[in-house]
Amino acid sequence: MSRGWIILIVGIVAMGTLVLLFCWSLYRMAIGRNRKSFLATDRNMPKVEETRVREIKEWFREQPFEKAEIVSDDGLKLRAHYLESKPDNRDAVILAHGYSGKGEDMAAFARFYLENGFNVLMPDNRGHGESDGHYIGFGWHDRKDYVRWIGYLVNRIGDECRILLHGVSMGGGTVLMTSGEPLPPQVKGIVADCAYSSVKGILKYQMKQMFKLPSFPLLPITSLICKLRAGYFFGEASVLKQLKNCCKPVLLIHGGKDTFVPTEMAEEIFAAIPSRKEKLIVPEAQHGTSFLVDSRSYADSVLRFIQASFGKQAQKA
Length: 317
What we know:
The protein is α/β, with parallel strands linked by helices. The protein is 43% helix and 16% strand. The chain is built from 11 helices and 8 strands. An 8-stranded mixed β-sheet has the order 1-2-4-3-5-6-7-8, sandwiched between helices. Helix 1 packs across helix 7 and helix 4 packs across helix 5.
């Protein structure tokens, strides 16, 4: 073998090794369970006023939350906070948090729903908070977990209960993926705020935003690593595919200035919803801030959606 061929082969092997190492690092950064420090410096992630954060955290600490627990299909212990509005109330909301967060991050929404007469369940997704799991499912495996949380509420409250699913960011993707599963009649509607249309789509977008790199071949290789380590390909985890089986009403919310999950994805999702649907775009809102930027429009849209989906006026607690 000539020297030129040896150099070429060594170069190809070295390049392949570098690509594999980068993809492994990408998997650990995006999918593995660890602190996502890169989010703190991401220019597409809005900053929330510290005073508002402290105020809602204080409210959360003052509430008599109960701890709830279920076991997933694959044997993970999943944990949540549960808060009852009043003993005879049959209406409940399940709040799905965002990427690298935990259930209590949804405290502002918990307060809103509690004030409007809802029992509140705030799960920690697998790989988050106090729940078991070594990876982030981006809503894909979590969809099965949320079916179990729905069953938990039906068993706890009774067959007469009425359930709303409400998720933000990854939580929005989670509740939309859940919508494609067989759901009991107790589930009356779904609210999805700043959701992505697919895991493959949002990771492709983020690779360009963060690294200025093309998705091929890096994303397919990372997807294979994800399949081997976490049990799913990125292409499987599609909101758009799951929506084909959705038969529940959906309220879709998105910020008009969202550059973390681009607003165009909301239009893509809305077009794919086959059931009754409504949409709210908050023009000045960035990612996950629609409720903060225009609380009145947000609340009015959600309460109207509840009235239409539940056949009732929301009652103050």
